[in-house]
Design goal:
The chain has 190 residues and is an alpha/beta fold. The chain has helices spanning 3-16, 55-67, 75-78, 85-95, 113-127, 151-154, 166-182; strands at 21-23, 27-32, 35-40, 45-49, 71-73, 98-103, 139-143, 160-161. The strands form two sheets. It has a five-stranded parallel beta sheet with strand order 5-4-6-7-8, with helices on both faces. A three-stranded antiparallel beta sheet has the order 1-2-3, covered by helices on one side. The radius of gyration is 18 Å and the shape is elongated.
C-alpha cells in the first residue's frame, strides 16, 4: 500500500469512528449523511512569533485572533512530541497568510529563535508575488509594549500597538490579516 493509500485509509477509519480529521492549513474531513465531506480552511493562517518570556501574552493574542476569525499558529499549541520542530516552524511560516512578530523590550534584545523566525519570514516575504492592486502584506510587526522595533523593519513596514488599547490594536491587526488572506491566490486541485 502506498503512502497516499495509507493516509486515505487512516482518514476513512477515523471518520467512520465518528471523528473529524483536520489537516493543518487545508481543512477538515468529516462524515455526513451523504458520505464523506471536506470542509476547506477559510480562516486566515497566522504565524505568531514571540520570545519565551512573552508566552502568556502571545497566547492571549492567539485567543483574540481566533475570536476575530483567524487561525493562529503558535509553537506551543501546534508542535507535536518528536516532531522536527525547526522544519515544522519553517513550514508554518511558509504556509501562513501572515506572520505576526511580537516585539517587546525582551524580544528586541534577545538572540535566538525569535530573531531566526523573523529573518526567515522576511526572506519568505521577498519570495511572495507582489499584488498588482495593493501592496502585499505578510510580515506584521506588533508591539506588545513600549519598545523599539528594529529599524530594518520600522523603516519599511507599519507596526500596530496592542497598548494602551488592546481591543483596538487586535482589531486593526485582524483587519490587516483578513485583507491579506482575501488577496492570496486560490489553489486549484485537479
Amino acid at each position: 500500500m502506498s503512502g497516499r493509500e495509507t493516509l486515505a485509509e487512516l482518514v476513512r477509519k477515523a471518520i467512520d469512528a465518528g471523528q473529524t480529521v483536520e489537516i493543518d492549513g487545508l481543512g477538515t474531513f468529516e462524515g455526513s449523511a451523504q458520505g464523506y465531506q471536506f470542509l476547506p480552511q477559510t480562516r486566515p493562517e497566522v504565524f505568531i512569533a514571540y520570545v519565551a518570556e512573552d508566552l502568556a501574552i502571545a497566547r492571549r493574542l492567539c485567543e483574540a485572533l481566533r475570536a476575530e476569525g483567524c487561525s493562529p499558529w503558535l509553537d506551543k499549541e501546534k508542535l507535536l512530541p518528536g516532531q522536527n520542530w525547526p522544519r515544522a516552524i519553517e513550514r508554518g511560516i511558509e504556509v501562513a497568510d501572515a506572520f505576526v512578530a511580537c516585539f517587546s523590550r525582551r524580544s528586541v534584545l534577545k538572540r535566538g529563535q525569535f530573531q531566526s523566525e523573523l529573518r526567515y519570514a522576511l526572506d519568505c516575504a521577498r519570495r511572495r508575488p507582489i499584488a498588482d492592486s495593493v501592496e502585499s502584506v505578510f510580515v506584521i510587526p506588533v508591539r506588545l509594549e513600549e519598545c523599539q522595533v528594529p529599524r530594518r523593519i520600522s523603516d519599511q513596514v507599519q507596526y500596530v500597538d496592542l497598548f494602551p488599547d488592546w481591543k483596538k490594536g487586535v482589531h486593526r491587526l485582524a483587519k490587516a490579516i483578513q485583507r491579506t488572506a482575501r488577496e492570496r491566490p486560490v489553489l486549484e486541485l485537479r
